[in-house]
Fold this sequence. Notes:
The structure holds two protein chains of two kinds.
Chain A: H1 3-12, H2 19-26, H3 28-35, H4 64-67, H5 72-81, H6 87-106, H7 119-129, H8 140-151, H9 157-172, H10 178-191, H11 195-212, H12 219-235, H13 242-254, H14 261-271, H15 276-301, H16 308-317, H17 322-343, H18 359-372, H19 380-397, H20 404-409, H21 419-429, H22 436-450, H23 457-473, H24 480-487, H25 495-511, H26 522-531, H27 550-568, H28 579-589, H29 596-599, H30 626-644, H31 649-652, H32 657-675, H33 697-701, H34 713-722, H35 733-743, H36 750-756, H37 759-770, H38 774-790
Helix pairs in contact in A: 2-3, 5-7, 6-7, 7-9, 8-9, 9-11, 10-11, 12-13, 12-14, 13-14, 13-15, 14-15, 15-19, 16-17, 18-19, 19-21, 21-23, 22-23, 23-25
Chain B: H1 2-13, H2 56-65, H3 72-87, H4 99-106, H5 115-127, H6 130-134, H7 137-148, H8 153-176, H9 182-192, H10 196-201, H11 203-207, H12 216-220, H13 227-244, H14 249-264, H15 303-313, H16 315-328, H17 330-347
Helix pairs in contact in B: 2-3, 3-5, 5-8, 7-8, 8-13, 9-13, 13-17, 16-17
Amino acid sequence: MSRIRFRASQFGRPREPSPSYRYAARRPKKFLSASTPTFPPLLNIQEGAYPFNSQNMVKRKLGALEKVEADLPNLQHKIRRDPKSYVEDFRAQHYQYESHREIFMAAPSSATDTGIISLRELLDFIAHVADCYPDITKDFGHQLIDMLTQHHLLLEPELREKIVGSLVLLRKKELLDSATLLQTLFPILISTPSKTLRALIFQKILMDLRSSNAKTTNHKLNRTMQTVLFNLVTSDRTSSKGLWAIKLTRELWKRQIWADAKAVEVMKEASLAENEKVIVGGVRFFLGGDKEREEMEEESSDEETIDIGRVKHQVGINKKTKKKARAIEKAKATVQRRERKKNQPHPLNFSALHLLHDPQGFAESLFSKHLQSPKSKLNLEQKLMVLQLVTRLVGLHKLHILHLYSYFQKYLTPRQPSVTSFLASLAQASHDLVPPDDLEPLVLKIANEFVSEASASEVATAGLNAIREICARQPLAMNETLLQDLVMYRKSKDKGVVMAARGLLSLYRDLNPEMLRRRDRGKDASIGLQHGEKKEKRFGAQEAGGIEGLELLEKWKEEERKRKRAEKGLPSDAEDDEEDEEDENNWDAWNVEDDEDSDDSGGWIDVQSDVEIDVSDSDDEGSRPAKKAKQAGEDETTESKPETKLPSIATTRILTPADLAKLQELRQEAAVNALVPGFKRRGQTTEPRYKDDALTAAEIEGLAALSAGKATREERIAHAKEGKTDRSEHKSVTAKRKEKKEEQGKSTTNKEKARKKNFLMTLGKAKSKGKRSLVETRAVLRAHQDRQKRGGRKGNK
Amino acid sequence: MGASQKRKKEKQKDFQKPKLKVGKAKAKPDNFTDTSFKSKSIVLNQQSLKLTAPSTTTQFTHHLSLLTSKSDSQRRDSLAHLTTSITSRPVSSPLPQPVSLLLPQLLPLLLDVNTSVRSNLLKLLRALPESDVADHVSQLLPYIRAGMTHLAPDIRLSSIEVLGWLVEVAGEEVVSCAGGWVKTLNCFLSVLGWHSEVSSKWTSASSAGSSNSTNRPSFGKAGAKGRPQVKVLSVLADFLDAGIGTPDPSSDVDSADGEGSGGASFPIRQFRSQMIPQTAAPYVYLNLFGKPRDEEGEMYETREDRWRVFEGRFLGAVERGVAEARAEGGEVGRASAGVSRVLVEARA
């Protein structure tokens, strides 16, 4: 305790940095007060602190850090910097924590924050520095777990949250493994009545799962967690606790952390539960989970765009600080990450509906459990959702459910609430392997109930649209007389009905024109019939499979060949051997990166601009210009030729990666072209719909919005505004430029400043100007002249 | 110009004084809110209008409840009041509230920020009947230990004083209750900075208290000339004496008495051990309802047990510390003599 002893220690061990020495350097005043008894004014304790030393009571000067009596954050900071020297302090605090814990465990419900330091702060402190002293704190995690699991009902909220936070912190510091953490938190999540705690724990669990799957997929952890969730859902089917499993799975599915069959299995079990909320949660997942995931993906990909050039430029101009340097590093890293992501192949993700193990069994049990059984407690909306799922499964996997179609029978009346959803579901449920005998009565019923002169136009529209959708999937469900009858509705006065009937007409022109009356068939279809191309598809007939867009590739190759030959000056369609030349190219083509040919378009997609606009399928074709008709005829003839021969390219040669890349490009181009209005040619009205997409009630309602007089003013305004991009108010170009300048925080010109100057401020000058003496005026004028010569106030040298 | 004049006038309008007229009510301000209401009856829930002054018991309870007050002086005054009412009560009359009800209110105050509150608390504790305190040692000890390792040196010191009082009052219970021996000794070592590694590495530094930044002020208040450490050492000596010192002659006589009488009469020897014990919780050692205990939290009921544990875990550290303290000389050295005397006796 004396100076001499301290020095002895210092000289005795010159090499080792004594903590006391360092300490003294950091806090000189305290060091003095501790070790030199020769300065009495510094060295006294607080008045009245100790009854037994009341001899010298001069007020002690306090160091800045001493004033705070119990400064855990300060200690924490010091421990972080030098854990070895502060081990004793930490040990003391650990004992402190132990005793507080003892007090707490004796009476968990009583208030814990007594005095200056509460258990909560101690927990926080120890959790933050636990990684520095793993041997002292080896039980800490388990003590926390005990505290939480045993007393989470009684704990005061703040302490509870602190314990959860500390556990997560320990997990971050790798002092606790994920499995233990999740096994602790999950039961509490399910059982606790506190909403805030649930929210907190849910968030923490999610975060932990995300972080442990961040670098590589942690299969083991995922499997255990999925098993836990699966058991939660299946153990008690009537309880609503399964909701947590659903929430967690859905969130992780959305973020593509869980994308395997097991997660889907959890959801499948959830949708077969007995609690309505759980059922709806499960069904919703199947109906919307994939879309959600896609949206999430898009969202993350188009975050903020970083212009690296601009950032660099700014750094060149502005003051160079560490922060700016870091910002540029970060921007570079982001750009790099994005580049890498762009080059990565799209992750092979299957939709939840495809990952189901036994879709037939699932659909059957869903149908019998929730829809058919009289015991089902679902309301109409929920039932509709289940029905939607069932029918999607049926349509997607081409399943057969025995009583599904007869189930629809009683719901197909215009008075049924949300009947359009039923119609959409029915259309979804039909596929080409459904026996026409099952569907025909339904189609007939729809026609009878919905489509009549007496019924409202919306009703008729919906009925016609539904029939069209069903028949698009199973054309055999329609008989000739009914079709001819329905097609007559294109003469209706209502536009929605007209459009729907035309849709049906063009569908059958494409699929089976023989069923139409001769004059309804249209030109293309009649020609097709004469050539014998358009034949009725038999029940169950399958088309030979092929590679999508292969004919595009073939066409492109042909053109390329012609072009090359034209360059060489050879006749374009000579059939001489160029195999050897092609062989040379072929080996290059196996490597996509080297191949310039496929990259020449550089991400640009050609969009045809000069195609004629041709939308209508109306039958007044005769009034058209003859030239156009002739052109179309030529198209037909040229097109009909290649169709006769099989696409040979896939059968004659092996497609190289370069070929596949080109194929992809062509496909994309075609898809974009298809979106451009006017490109649609006759006979291509029914573009192949993506099979995975659901059919919605809105599509069945169709163009009912077009029905005259039904739209309110607001709706019409909204409809008119739909296509237009929103532009701000009309302004002059100068005003816009000025605004832009102001937005960017740029300064104004002197002229502008002068114009904007407050009127009152200019008054004084104006007044004094009139009162100047001759001498003053002269001086001013001279000064002005001088300035002009010099070129401004600062001079223009 | 015209517009600005007009605006000026409008602004001034707000600050013009309304004219008061005789015989008319004052005009209500614009933002006046009518807060009057009508009610059929008025019920006064709580009103304590009494002619007599509150009795001493009610005052006692009232002050007991005031112990959780936010204000320091309030807590201090209430403690003082409780102390006086306990000490001034007629002899042989019971406490206004039993100790078991008092302690939960009092114990958190061991960690109170205010020094005078803590010193008043000690006074109050001293005023409590000794026999009652002995039953609640296991309740007291965690708080004392929490105080001993507190970050604030003042609190450490005052809780050492409380421990001194407790050892004095119920030494046997202190050392033999669950966790009372090992945990408390650990706390002592940490207060003194005698924990093995550090003291071996930085011998003198640790005794100067500089190994632990926050420990230092407690020892290092040179104005006290090592008094805090003296105090700690003397309490440690008492504690060790209670734990591993030679058995008290008085209790010896007592047991010898029992044995003697047992031996004189019929074969029933040591009949005391056959009888139901007279302590408050005789079967605590069975630990029927608590959690399983580890080595630190275990009860060490006999002197031999305690010595064994002490020898295994603490002896080296304590001896080293005592040697250092003696080398320091002065009051600290003298105080350390007490500890070493106990050690010597225990070894013998």
